[in-house]
TrEMBL record:
Transmembrane segments: none annotated. GO terms for biological process: bacterial-type flagellum assembly. Residues 103-167 form the Flagella basal body P-ring formation protein FlgA SAF domain. It comes from the Bacteria. This is Flagella basal body P-ring formation protein FlgA. PANTHER family: FLAGELLA BASAL BODY P-RING FORMATION PROTEIN FLGA.
Length: 170
């Protein structure tokens, strides 16, 4: 009888992390981070990889099928992660550039982190601008986080020239 209980105990110890996630009733968020890293070929915080890990406060239903990952957006700067199960979920993971587009030679930053910038919101037939602060450094053409004040929510904007970032409105 002792042998049987030892075998059962050893079997319980070898459960996969996904099984542990299923026990809690939610999908394993670390597994999503790992899948995105495999898809992009770069780890979290690395060029071409996810900017940040998936928010650990999310409670996603367990996905019994293999996750579906694809590039999302015209600039392919997000990865769409989907659970193909009936009633499944989907989420978007922002990445720092797309490694499939090739690596360009390093350019000096046109905007430095903490630098005062002009944030222009542009659409079809209009343009509104306001001063703000760059939360990241970047070269012309790069997408960075900016904010209009210390308490404001950050937004993504594209650097068009030193000191000017644009938020396009379609």
């Amino acid at each position: 009888m002792k042998t049987l209980s030892i075998i059962v105990a050893l079997g319980a110890c070898t459960l996969a992390p996904a099984a542990v996630a299923q026990v809690s009733g939610f999908h394993d968020l670390v597994a999503i981070d790992d899948a995105v890293a495999r898809f992009t070929g770069a780890g979290i915080g690395r060029p071409g990889g996810a900017n940040l890990p998936v928010d650990r406060r999310m409670r996603l239903s367990p996905c019994r099928s293999e996750l579906s990952l694809s590039w999302y957006g015209a600039r392919q700067d997000n990865v769409l992660v989907q659970c193909p199960d009936a009633g499944g979920w989907r989420l978007f993971v922002a990445v720092s550039g797309n490694v499939r587009q090739g690596t360009a030679p390093a350019e000096p930053p046109a905007v430095a982190r903490g630098e005062a910038v002009t944030i222009a919101v542009e659409g079809d037939g209009f343009s509104v601008s306001q001063s703000g602060e760059a939360m990241e450094a970047g070269a012309v053409g790069a997408w960075i986080r900016v904010r209009t004040s210390a308490k404001a929510t950050t937004m993504r904007a594209q650097i068009t020239r030193p000191g000017l970032v644009v938020v396009p409105v379609d």
